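To assess whether the prediction recovers the assembly geometry, we first specified each molecular entity separately, as shown.
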Amino acid sequence: MNRRTFHRAPEGERRQELIEATLDCIAEFGLKGATVRQIAIRAGVTAGLVRHYFESKDQMVAEAYRAVIASLTDKAAHVEGDPETRLRDFIAINLTEPVADSRSISLWAAFISQVRVDPILAEIHRDGYVTFRNTLQDLLADFLTLKNKPADAETCRAYAIAINGLVDGLWIEGCLAGDLFREGELVAIAMASVEALLGASIGSDKQ
Amino acid sequence: MNRRTFHRAPEGERRQELIEATLDCIAEFGLKGATVRQIAIRAGVTAGLVRHYFESKDQMVAEAYRAVIASLTDKAAHVEGDPETRLRDFIAINLTEPVADSRSISLWAAFISQVRVDPILAEIHRDGYVTFRNTLQDLLADFLTLKNKPADAETCRAYAIAINGLVDGLWIEGCLAGDLFREGELVAIAMASVEALLGASIGSDKQ
DNA sequence: GTCGCTATTGTTCAAGCGTATAATAATGCG
DNA sequence: CGCATTATTATACGCTTGAACAATAGCGAC
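The predicted structure of the complete assembly is given in tokenized form:
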């Protein structure tokens, strides 16, 4: 009986491959289609290996959720430059690929639908959301100060909620029905909307 | 061997109960927790009955999705009165219960995560989305005309995309983290934001 | 009433699930 | 080079799944 040949992956690499394969399967087949066997096939290993790297399938899925949140928030959290540029980049990053694509929202939705069910996922979610909105709120505070507008905490909070909602909502529209929009249309609408909301130019015409 | 006693449900009623039980299970346990057996328990019948009313479990789930979309869009699609009132009601309805609650978004997300997987769900989704945005676009056209502002199709389209995004995004924020907002805060932010976007009062202070 | 129809039950089945475990191939170290 | 270590394969196990099916209980027609 001939065994398959294989190679031992370098430290931590196989772990990352398994998480990536998990996300591929969730995006392609949904959460219930992301079985241990299917994930293993995708990663090019056999099913038994999963339990060598993770305590359980649930734990692997939770780590995969952390990876999704990171992919959705990391880029936007590290914008640089003056407040105006950062605000513009924040909007553009969230509404163009790779953040805005149908795979992203499939993954996001799959996990969101489990947040109410699984307390562990709920905690991961809450952390990610609070971080994201605080990033935006700080960004708005800097921007409003630059523009010599009121930038008290309450005002920034309301703007952050509104703009966060706007960007999230447009992100979803774009992900779910990207073909209904022209190239760059969503970003343009977002820029114009934010200018209207804040009553200040963000120099979106410079783009 | 004693069989359970039961009663034969009136025309169509049992069908509706099964769909409702399906949604309960999806909201409570997620899509993969919504098994035929669990759904039957919730509906107070045995598992075998499902296949008497539906060709397959998948078909029952698809019909359940239609029910979800209807519950999310019906109320907002039937607002009445002058354009200003209708616009205000449209916003308020989408951001207060029963449309805005954690059960709604769990259901919505569960199905959205499957839209890419299942072509049947994709079609149901697309229909619902187009209808929803067209309703909003018509509403905005009436409103802008009333306010003697430009109401050409292109302008209305851009406003509809932006406001649809804003309302959807705030809906999600409210559903997922309702405890982070004060009573009526989201509706107030939405009203103020829409006024800023359109550059016109919608009389939100009258509420 | 009782008879026929069918909605509902209860049981069974093959397939697929997550997990456990033993055998083994690859790798690093002396 | 030979040996210990362990990453990986392969197989098996108990359980749940959606579906199929025969038996039967409720109910309307007559």
